[in-house]
Amino acid sequence: MGDTQDWAAGPGAAERARSVLAAAWSCGVTADGAREEYVGAHTVTEDGGVLLDVPEDSALVTAALCAPRGEPSAVLEFADAAPVPVRDRIRARVWLAGWFAPAADGPLLFRPARVVLRRSSGAVLVDLAEFAAARPDPLAAAEARLLTHLADAHPDAVERLTRLVRPESLHAATRVTPLAVDRHGLTLRIERVRAHGDVRLAFHTPADDVTQLTERMHALLAQASAAGCPRALQRQRADGDG
What we know:
32% strand, alpha+beta, three-stranded antiparallel beta sheet, single chain
């Protein structure tokens, strides 16, 4: 669910899909009507193929390898879960439909023929050429650690950042939590009793590594310090003190 804050620049569909694959720890594989879950078993090639290390006796993968060519014979699913506890924790899902290539030894190579990315805004079909050429967000591998640290160790900073959020987006808010970060900006989850919304705070320029991210965050906090405390939060504090 979106909120009234203007949505800032963010990664395109191909980059977002590649980021999900890069950060995901597990992978679901469906073939011939059956499904198996593999944990810590996949890596992604430069052009978006998936190397999957599976047991030699996997009936599911055998069925996929033996299927006649034509329609894709297997579907891989990856989920992107927020590293902090929030409602609707799955931020995105990626499905790859395609084929496994036979291998004498080592991991099997999966070649996607169709890529679908689903976010809260809906599902999109990702262009295969763009998917192959895209690179994961440079912060994808570190995002979980960075967000967890921000939420756990710096709740005061998160509260200060709410000064950059429109007051109407904070109406009836019960909690504000960092939901996502990428090179373009930080997304905050605003929770209410029965609903929630997300707002995005843009960096002044993209961050290509953690060092640059630290500078971008300091710039946001300085901007927030210069802003006034949102009236919505002021009222909540007054109500809580009564």
